[in-house]
Amino acid sequence: MNWLKQALGSEWNISPAGGLTGDAFFAENDSRRLFLKRNSSPFLAVLSAEGIVPKLVWTKRLENGDVITAQEWLNGRELKPEEMRHPRVATLIRKIHESTELLHMLMRLGKKPVTPDERFAELSNQLHENGLMEKHPEVLESISYLEKLLSVTRNQRKVVCHCDLNHNNILLTKKDQLYLVDWDNAMIADPAMDFGFVLKWYIPYEDWNEWLQSYGIPKDRQLIERMYWYLIMDALFYLKWHSDRNEMDKAFSRLEDLKELNYHVRSAILNWSAE
């Protein structure tokens, strides 16, 4: 942790904050508390200004070129899964999707909109190359649905998407402030990628209309088609990711998710055909 001592000084008590990269830490000195991260994106400054993440206190560049950011370390907790149903969550996600400041910053950082056609072609080739398409009928069925629904994903409004709206990434402070953290996977894409994840994993089907009204859009057939398109893409991506790493328990779990998604899409298509 020499780079932390260089940034802060030896009087600070420093402890790891967890995470896969090992680049996040908590720091405390008497009543002063900070959350530190190495080489965060410049995107963090705009997120802080928009009130979406805890306030950015300072940024320092070290001699080795690393950049350290310090944010307020606030008293609070992660949201519970059932709390994802609250209209405040929908309102926060809508605020992010409607922010032109966030969109312009990501574009200045070189991010380009993700096109469904490119993602579909790339993932299809990868699944074919590693044999998953031939090994699992569910994968072949999923590819068929993705191809069938691809047209509804085209020419959609592109916004800043968080792309990891797990309840663990939404913080509620003791002052009743709501923040969304962990922006490492952010991209410019169809907003259905974000709210589809929340609907599928946190909101009972009978409450989808109400949640989407809080977000600000009506539920319709095309919206549901787009939502399932991205959910299937996500399940396929992680099935391949875990399979490539020989993490077979996790790969099996993703395969079960895929079977469930296929079932829902299959049922929906039958219902739509009967209309």
TrEMBL record:
InterPro entries, per this entry? Aminoglycoside_PTrfase (IPR002575), CcrZ_PhaseVar_Mediator (IPR052077), Kinase-like_dom_sf (IPR011009), Prot_kinase_dom (IPR000719)
Gene3D superfamilies, A to Z? 3.90.1200.10
Which SUPFAM superfamilies did the record assign?
Protein kinase-like (PK-like)
Coiled coil (UniProt feature)? none
Recorded hits in PROSITE patterns, A to Z, give: PROTEIN_KINASE_DOM (PS50011)
Using the record's annotation, list all stretches that form the Protein kinase domain: 10-275
PANTHER family, per the entry: CELL CYCLE REGULATOR CCRZ, PHOSPHOTRANSFERASE YTMP-RELATED
Name of the protein described by the UniProt record: Phosphotransferase
Q: Which organism is it from?
A: Virgibacillus kekensis
| Source taxonomy | Bacteria, Bacillati, Bacillota, Bacilli, Bacillales
